[in-house]
Write a structure and sequence with these properties.
Length: 282
Amino acid sequence: MKRTWTFTKAPTPKNTCTTCYSLSNPASAQNPMLAVFQKTVAKSPEGLQTPQQEPPVNALKDGLLSRSFSAVHPSAVTINLADSGLISYSVDKQNPLLPRLFAVVDDIFCLFQGHVENVAPLKQQYGLNKTANEVTIVIEAYRTLRDRGPYPADQVVRDLQGKFAFILYDSTSKSTFIAADADGSVPFFWGTDSEGNVVLSDDVETVKKGCGKSFAPFPKGCFFTSSGGLRSFEHPFNELKAVPRVDSSGEMCGANFKVDSNSKKETGMPRVGSAANWSQHY
């Protein structure tokens, strides 16, 4: 059955193709984007939510956060993902050094911010044409991982050399794939509202509005999937531990997630380079 997606306040972007919008504008260094995912689609890790959050906020109820985002960014485009959540982005106030791209391919939605240095070899690796860019590479890398799984998810992200953060949602499987580079080069925050829904944005004030004290910078060198949760792509065999954050007033404020060098994951995964299908472990 063909799905119909609702795009609200959608202007006509310049230099568009049928699936990919380039959202660059050198006039400003702000980069507003937002995603909210229902807790059944993206379950936040333990430790991110601060206990006894008051007042309780549901970021998805009555379009609370998307309306607030659109009020601050009147040119914002919002994609309603039905009962899974929403994605919003603005077509102005861009950082020319960290441009943002949006694409939809076969009901896979992706927001990408930053740049990848090894675009040419990645195009060849995934069999893409000359017009492919970072956002289409991420989508194709995800599809390859999902459908064939020739190598593990951590390698897929580690192969992206550059400064980036991306948010991907697959409406067919109702799953997410989210990552930030090893240096945390792109401002990127996440949090959880009182209902356990996950909020992601490059604007910390937007995340605060939806999550109160239950937020933190997205862990650098890490990726998040609906099935596997939060993992480090630099240290894929180590566990991550939550380290509580304290704000300037001494109050608990979410958690940072650090690689636990003393803890190794127990895994029955196939070795890298074997003929096994990694997609079952995604």
